[in-house]
Amino acid sequence: MTDVPLRWKACLVSTPLLLLLLGLNACSRSSGGGTSEAALPLFEDILTLEASIEEDPALDDFQIVYPQGIGVDAAGNIYLADEHSLKVYRPDGSPLKLLGRDGAGPGEFRVPTNAWIGPTGYITAKDVLWDVNIYAADGEFVDRVNYRTDALYRGYLRER
Questions:
Q1: pTM for the structure as a whole
Q2: Which site among 8, 13, 27, 57 is 20 to 30 Å from 2 CA-CA?
Q3: What is the CA 46 to chain-centroid distance, rounded?
Q4: Which pLDDT tens digit goes with each residue over 92-124?
Q5: What's the rounded mean pLDDT across residues 46-69?
Q6: Judgement on whether residues 59 and 108 belong to the same structural domain of the protein
Q7: Which helix (H) or strand (E) holds 17?
Q8: Are residues 42 and 114 in the same domain?
């Protein structure tokens, strides 16, 4: 699987939290508390994803509610595991598509926690309780696997 570059892994920070952190950083620099410039934390390579939701009800599904994991494909599309789906955004942050929906069946999520994009473009997304949904690069559902009961995975665990 392709690993997400460190600059994208750094953080997914909401705007209020980012402002709070930057405000604290600015206050600590101006307080003259005897801390050297080199010892202060630097906030670099922070990924912020803003979705501007206008009066279009079709975009309501793309509001970020409870993000759990993030992945980025080779084209720069952002896959955000949030609520009961993978919310896919273009590199500029505009909504692209949704993968999955609420449920416990094939292609459905109770709580997606991670998104990985492999070198071939296949997308795997882990749900709670060891379930993983697999999608083709175009977003078409391929399979759902429970790694707790999968023979190959159990063999891997026994060997280790």
A1: 0.61
A2: 13
A3: 13
A4: 989 999 999 999 889 999 999 989 998 899 999
A5: 70
A6: yes
A7: helix 15-30
A8: no
Domain of 7, in residue numbers: 1-48
| CA count, 13 A, side-chain hemisphere, 145 | 13
What is the distance in angstroms between the CA of the first residue and the CA of the last residue of the chain?
20
Element (H, E) at 132: strand 131-135
Instruction: Report the C-alpha dihedral over residues 116, 139, 77, 83, rounded to 10 degrees.
Output: -70
How many Å apart are CA 22 and CA 28, to the nearest integer?
10
Q: What's the domain count of the chain?
A: 2
Amino acid symbol at 127: D
Q: What are the C-alpha distances in Å from 85 to residues 68, 118, 151?
A: 11, 19, 27
Does residue 84 share a domain with residue 152?
yes
The 3-class SS string of 61-114 reads HHCCCCEEEEEECCCCCEEEEECCEEEEECCCCCEEEEECCECCCCCCECCCCE
Rounded to 5 degrees, φ, ψ at 115 are -140, 130
The DSSP symbol for 142 reads E
Shortest CA distance to 125 belongs to which of 75, 83, 74, 69?
69
Judge whether residue 48 has pLDDT over 80: no
What's the token pair of residue 65?
Answer: 């509610």
